[in-house]
Amino acid sequence: MELLRTRADLxxxxxxxxxxxxxxxxxxxxLHAGHLSLVERAAALxxxxxxxxxxxTQFAPGEDFAHYPRDLEQDLERLRPLGPAxxxxxxxxxxxxxPAGAAVEPGPRADALCGARRPGHFRGVATxxxxxxxxxxxxxxxxxxxxxxxxxxxxxxxxxxxxPVRLIDAPTLREPDGLAMSSRNRYLEGDDRRRATCLxxxxxxxxxxxxxxxxxxxxxxxxxxxHLADADVxxxxxxxxxxxxxxxxxxxxxxxxxxxxxxxxxxxIDNLVLDVGPREVRAASLLEGGQP
Length: 292
Ligand code: PAF
Description:
Blueprint: E1 2-4, H1 14-18, E2 23-27, H2 33-43, E3 48-52, H3 72-79, E4 86-88, H4 92-95, H5 113-117, H6 121-136, E5 140-144, H7 148-160, E6 166-170, H8 190-195, H9 198-211, H10 217-226, E7 233-241, E8 253-263, E9 266-276, E10 281-283
Parallel strand pairs: 1-4, 2-3, 2-5, 3-4, 5-6
Antiparallel strand pairs: 7-8, 8-9, 9-10
Helix pairs in contact: 6-7, 9-10
The structure holds pantoate.
C-alpha cells in the first residue's frame, strides 16, 4: 500500500490506470467499518485508491472543519489488511494551490434537503470530487449511500460534464441498534448516543407504514417527525423521488426517505432508498450498478 501525498506522487498510479479498472474510494478519513465496506466493494472491481482529505471547501463557516477527526496513522492501519494499492492523502495546499479559484457548480439535485441548509456544501463536494477524479483517473468511484444526496448530486455532475467514470453507491453499514455508521458518531456520548437511534427508528416506522399500504407523502412525513421527538432539532424528514429529488405527489416509484437531525453536538443524516410498487416495497440503490 503506497502512501501518496502530492500530485507528483500520483504518477506512480500510471500502471494501475492503464488497466482501465482503477477504483477510487473518496473519504475524509476517520475511517470506520462503513468506509472499510466501501473499500471491500471497490476491491471486487479492480485495484483501489483510497483518498483521505478533509475538504475545507465543503464546510460552511461555523461548521466542524477544525474539529473534524483526523488520524492518518490509524486510518492507514485500518486500511492495510484490505490491501488497497494506494492511499492519496494530500495536504490542503496540494489540493488547493490557488485559493478561491474556479469551482464546479452542481445541478438542481443540490438545491433540496442538505443543499438548502448548508449553502455551498455541494459546490465544495462537487469541486473536490471532480479534482480527485481528474488527479487519480479511476474507471469507477464508490460512495456511501448514507450520503444519498451527495451520490445523486455527483451522479448529475458526472453525467452533465461527461466525466469518464462510473459511480457506485454502496449500502450503509449500521451499528447493532441501527445507528448509521458515521465519523461524526464520535461526537455522541451517553444519552446523545442513545437518542441518536431515533433516525433509524423513524425510517423503519415509515417503511412499515409503506408496507402496510400507506401511499400519502404527508402522513409518512408526519410519521417520520413523530419518531424524531428524541432529536434536539429536526432539519428535515422528507420523502423525495430518486433520482431528481423532487417531491412526489404520492409515495410511489423509487423513493428516498431522508432525515437530517441534530442530537447533542452531532448533525446526523440517514435515509432509506425504496422501490414502492402498488403492493410491494423493496430496498433499492440510488445509482445504476449499486446493490440494494
Ligand atoms: O463523503 C465524504 O466523505 C466527502 O463528502 C467526500 C466525498 C470525500 C468529498 O470530500
